[in-house]
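for the record, two folds in this file. i put them one after another cuz i was lazy. first one right below, seq on top, structure tokens after. the second one comes after a little note so u can tell where it starts
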Amino acid sequence: MSAIERIRKAVRQGRYVFTDYAKEESEADNLLLKDIIDVLLHGEIDSVYTDDPRGTRYVVRGDVGQSEVDVVCRFRPDGSLLIIITVYIVD
């Protein structure tokens, strides 16, 4: 299963959490939960970072209205939960 398929499966199953930082950043950019979920379900992986000792990070990019939005996420080491690290509008 590809990384985007794993991400989409976790979202569909409700196996995700937001960090406090992701909540703050999404509020600052006026992004709603449904916007972020839509990016994760319909966007594509833009970047993959494997150099983090906490695990591989994925940047999923998708459109919200007229803006491109990035959602940065990673799986817990056991793969049971998708952690949404931050969210932002691409400048």
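(here's the note) second protein begins now
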Amino acid sequence: MLENVRTQIEQLIARYEAEKAENTRLREELHTWEETGAALRKQIKELESEIETRKLTEAFSGGAATDDVRAKVDKLIKEIDKCISYLEDA
């Protein structure tokens, strides 16, 4: 009976060590995926910025997205005006 308990304890310890190693491996894999996700989010932002730049370039050269650009420029001007009014009130 004592030998049976000892065998079970050894099996439990072996399973614990295996699960611990798996946990470490999964944490490392998660870290890798998080880094990949961060890199992809950065790339998305860069591509979105490039798209905006191209839209502006196209608008100023007489392209089809002129209304969109004008709306964005108007929005930016309004935001700048708000900031100026906040500074004047301060």
